[in-house]
Design goal:
- The protein is about 65% helix and about 10% strand.
- By secondary structure, the chain is of the alpha/beta class.
- It has two domains: about 5-305, ABC transporter transmembrane region fold, CATH 1.20.1560; about 325-550, Rossmann fold (3-Layer(aba) Sandwich), CATH 3.40.50.300.
- The strands form two sheets. It has a six-stranded mixed β-sheet, with helices on both faces. Strands 2-1-4-5 form a four-stranded antiparallel β-sheet, with helices on one face.
- A hairpin with a 2-residue loop joins β9 and β10.
- The two termini are about 50 Å apart.
- It binds adenosine-5'-triphosphate.
- Adenosine-5'-triphosphate (ATP) binds near residues 333, 360 and 362.
- InterPro entries: AAA+_ATPase, ABC1_TM_dom, ABC1_TM_sf, ABC_transporter-like_ATP-bd, ABC_transporter-like_CS, P-loop_NTPase, Type_1_exporter.
């Protein structure tokens, strides 16, 4: 579990250095009044004071060096912790598969991984700095008690008031920091949503409305920013009033004790300096604000890190024809039954078309067959092995998926087809089989053309998506993956699929009757249930089946 404590703990390599230097700084701050007090007494007594002034100069130099090392170690700790947190977040998001972070908007996720991770990484240095900042006032209390117990009592009373101010500040600022980060995430989500649909927005001529929609949360962000500054200003003002009170109380008591002959003038001077340190606690608002932002960042990272990831087994898939078995499979999401008790045994090596009206559950069926998501109940097996028991490597080399709108990944066209670039021969074979080779070879750099710079139609993208899935040797799942192809190309690919020499099972989600007609078997889905499993020609006798194709 990711908590504030675990993020602090991660920076433990740097924290001792930060703490040590902060303590040196505190020690210098504590020692300086005493040294200066002695200088005053020496000057008043007319004795040698040079050594005291030299000691003061040495202490100041030590304080400067300590603060430089502290700044360097703090920055290094934040950078390292941010990188660690980002690695974990990205791993979780990617390993969660399509279902893992479904509840998060894309822009919000990006904000959590980018800006909020840096906020969270301040946890360690800010905590150590806060603890170290408490040391001088605590030391002041002890040293004042050594000079005179009444001075310590006056100091303690004043410091309690400063602590009350800081406590209220910490409580108020925590909520508003989280709200601020959440609003930032929502603005980023609206922007990423618009980028996804930018073509539709341009076509509909709603760009101004879209601009307003994205920025409509800005006033909220502004309000949260203003609240933050107000809390900071109010607490700062309170601390500014309460802080000098500590000094006044200590000076008043110290004056009385000096008159009573209980303390010396030098001791009164030192006491006044210690009182200033107590009043200085009020300056902690900055570091408390950092802790509040870090807490909010950790909270938002923990939300992501607590999502589910797909676990894999260790088994290989034994040699077999690609027999796919659904055993009482149900998928329930958001209180809806998306697949309802599906039991099927699809013969290995067959071409199986999955048909049904819109929303029938075809894509859910495909996702479960390819283990892009797990069933809520029941299990899916390939050649007798439950998919959940199979290792990731075995599963992904046995099962390939292609989608209606493939997201191509990689630097070049070649990498988009075969990410590991194991064999150019295999890349070429996949591209030829899916009719991608023709248009790829027309590109200026062929398979080495940058993916970002290659202009592609929907059908060309689909061909690359198909080519990427092609190398799977046991099961090929095509979810509407040829819907943008012209009829002639679709027919050619369909033939290749049917005549495929690999003896793998092909599961083709389709809305086209011609594709269903060419399949060995059709699974007819309706409302998440299997309505029939038969050949297209037989099902065609049923008018409800014909209606599926309009
Ligand atoms: N994660 C989810 N949570 C809740 N409902 C979901 C989820 N995923 C899909 N659904 C719903 O499940 C139903 C089946 O979706 P699915 O995408 O499988 O339909 P489909 O048969 O492929 O439709 P189409 O032919 O239009 O692509 C739909 O009503 C969809 O809204």
């Amino acid at each position: 579990m990711t908590t504030f404590g675990s993020v602090v703990k991660h920076g433990r390599g740097w924290l001792p250095l930060i703490g040590f230097n902060a303590l040196i700084g505190s020690g210098v701050t504590l020692a300086l009044p005493t040294i200066l007090g002695h200088s005053v007494d020496s000057i008043v007594a007319g004795t040698g004071y040079t050594q005291w002034l030299m000691a003061a100069a040495g202490l100041i130099a030590l304080g400067v060096v300590a603060s430089l090392i502290d700044a360097f170690a703090g920055a290094a700790c934040v950078a390292e912790t941010t990188a660690w947190l980002r690695h974990r977040l990205v791993k979780q998001i990617v390993h969660g598969g399509p279902e893992g972070t479904r509840g998060f908007e894309t822009g919000d996720l990006v904000t959590r991984v980018s800006a909020n991770a840096t906020d969270a990484a301040q946890a360690g240095p800010a905590t150590v700095t806060a603890i170290a900042a408490v040391a001088p006032p605590a030391g002041s209390l002890v040293l004042l008690a050594v000079i005179d117990p009444w001075l310590a009592a006056a100091f303690f009373g004043g410091v309690l008031l400063v602590i009350a101010v800081l406590w209220t500040f910490a409580r108020r600022t925590a909520d508003v920091s989280l709200a601020y980060q959440e609003t930032q995430g929502r603005i980023a989500s609206l922007l990423s949503e618009s980028l996804t649909g930018i073509r539709t927005i341009a076509a509909a001529g709603t760009t101004s409305r879209e601009e307003r929609r994205i920025l409509r949360l800005l006033p909220e962000l502004h309000k949260q920013g203003v609240v933050t500054w107000r809390i900071l200003a109010r607490s700062g003002a309170q601390a500014a009033v309460v802080g000098p009170l500590v000094l006044v109380a200590v000076l008043a008591v110290g004056g009385l004790q000096l008159v009573a002959g209980q303390i010396t003038a030098g001791e009164l001077f030192a006491a006044s300096q210690y009182a200033v340190l107590g009043a200085g606690l009020g300056n902690l608002t900055g570091v408390i604000g950092e802790i509040a932002r870090a807490r909010a960042g950790v909270h938002r990272a923990a939300d992501v890190l607590s999502t589910e990831t797909i676990g894999y087994g260790t088994l290989p898939i034994p040699t077999g024809p690609g027999q796919l078995t659904f055993d009482s499979v149900s998928v329930v999401a958001g209180g809806n039954v998306l697949l309802d008790n599906v039991t099927l045994d699809l013969p290995g090596g067959a071409t199986v078309a999955v048909v049904g009206p819109t929303g029938a559950g075809k894509s859910i069926f495909a996702a479960v067959a390819a283990r892009l998501r797990d069933p809520s109940i029941g299990q899916v097996s390939l050649d007798g092995v439950p998919l959940q028991a199979v290792s990731r490597r075995a599963l992904r080399s046995a099962v390939g998926c292609a989608f209606e709108r493939p997201q191509l990944v990689g630097r070049t066209i070649g990498e988009a087809i075969e990410p590991r670039a194991v064999s150019p021969v295999r890349t070429l074979a996949a591209a030829r089989a899916t009719h991608a080779h023709d248009f790829v070879s027309r590109l200026p750099d062929g398979y080495f053309t940058s993916l970002r710079k290659a202009p592609m139609s929907g059908g060309e993208r689909q061909r690359l998506g198909l080519a990427r899935a092609w190398s799977a040797n046991r099961l090929l799942v095509l979810d509407d993956a040829t819907s943008s192809l012209d009829t002639a190309t679709e027919l050619q690919i369909s033939r290749t699929l049917t005549e495929d020499r690999h003896h793998r099972t092909r599961l083709i989600i389709t809305h086209r009757p011609a594709t269903a007609a060419r399949a060995d078997l059709v699974v007819w889905l309706d409302h998440g249930q299997v309505r029939a499993v038969a050949q297209h020609a037989d099902l065609w006798q049923n008018s409800s089946y014909r209606e599926v194709f309009g």
